[in-house]
Amino acid sequence: MKQATLRRLMAAMTGSLILLAAPTAAVASPPDNDNFADASVISALPFTDSGDLNGTTTEPGEQSFCVFQPQTVWYAFTPSTTGVITVDTNGSQGPVVMTAYQSNGGGPGGLGFMSCIYSGSLVFTASAGTTYYFQVGSFFSGPMLLQFHVQEVPPPPNDAFADAKAVTALPSSDTADMTAATMEPGEPFPGGFPIAGSAWYAFTATESESLTASASVCCTAVTVAAYTGDSVANLTPVPSGGCCGTSTFKVVAGTTYYVQVGRGGGFGGPSPMSFRLDVAPPPVATLGWSPFDPSSFDSVNFYAYGSYDPVNVGIQTVTWNFGDGAADTGFSVFHRYADDRDYAVKLTVTTFDGRVGSATQVVHVKTHDVAITKFTAPNAASAGQTRQLSVSVNNSRYPETVQVQLFKSAPGSYGGFLPVGTLTQSVPVTPRNQSVPFAFSYTFTADDAAVGKVSFQAVATIVSARDAQSADNTAIALPTKVNR
How many Cβ atoms from other residues are within 10 Å of residue 69's Cβ? Predict the structure, then answer.
């Protein structure tokens, strides 16, 4: 009896221990804005909210344009005035997704999808009286710290023409946030291109010159234009040139000019802008010529194709001064020099707005000219016999080092000749009736005898210089009859 009672007691104690060891799972209560109908109303900006997504739910019919989200919360915002706002979840801990909608009525099924943001910011123009909903959630369940921010983005301080920022000295640079830049009634569209917003700068010229205004705006196109006038309704465009966010224009001392920097539409994030106004740089003049080692026999081609305008207004005129009193115009011209010497050639380029750039290069004109005046070869020879050949070279210009190559005829070979000897020696300046001999020796072969005759060719080349008249540098002697 005692043993049975003890067993029943132990069993009862063991069961109690098991019941005490089993934990009860804690279920987090969902936040007040868990459902679409209970969306937290954003009544004033800036707005910040934080909390744990753990315990939130997805109600029936709730949309998931970006990714399946098992837990979400909702926010609603109806602006009283139209303006640019930015919405982000920066600072959240975990894979938080924010989806923006425009209300079309009819609950969560009547929402117009706008955008999904996994990181960064959503920036858009919120229209007065329109309700926007922001669905914030995660594609994981469980604890998830949320940080949610909505704030208004103000336009730049110089958004309006009347608030144009004064430029007091050159060069001048500035930065501005163009995200919320607007267009005021009557504001011009530069070049007829639509822009979503603008900023204005004012500058009073102290001297007459050309200026370049340039701007860059992140993530969108940018246009720059200059005007004169005293109000938006009374602006006169200033003729200008340029592209890709630059405008170069002429100013007159004492006149005030207004520069409009326009931001294109279609932006989806912050639009920081950098602006610079400076005196326009001169065009770059770059000259070349061919042949590079001209002689007095050459018609030298001078060209300015490497010249350019850094601000893209364009080059209008190209002027050449050849250094010998002659001149010409055009991007590509020809000129012949009468004498050997060094000439300072100057190229001047002028842009359509009158800016001038120039470059000067020294052209060395030196005429090198040698000629083969006589070439003698034997009338006849026998196979195995060594005979002499002589090439006479005349030089009328400068002392030269000359190489003479000797070739013999070879039927069936490329060019019809094969090399058989080379001589290189100095050739001083000689009178036209005198020359310097190049003496060659050649041993005739059985192949020569089989053909029956051999023709010899001599070619004279100036070492390290170009012969101005190469037509007289080649000579062919009368054929030599070759016996067996």
Answer: 23
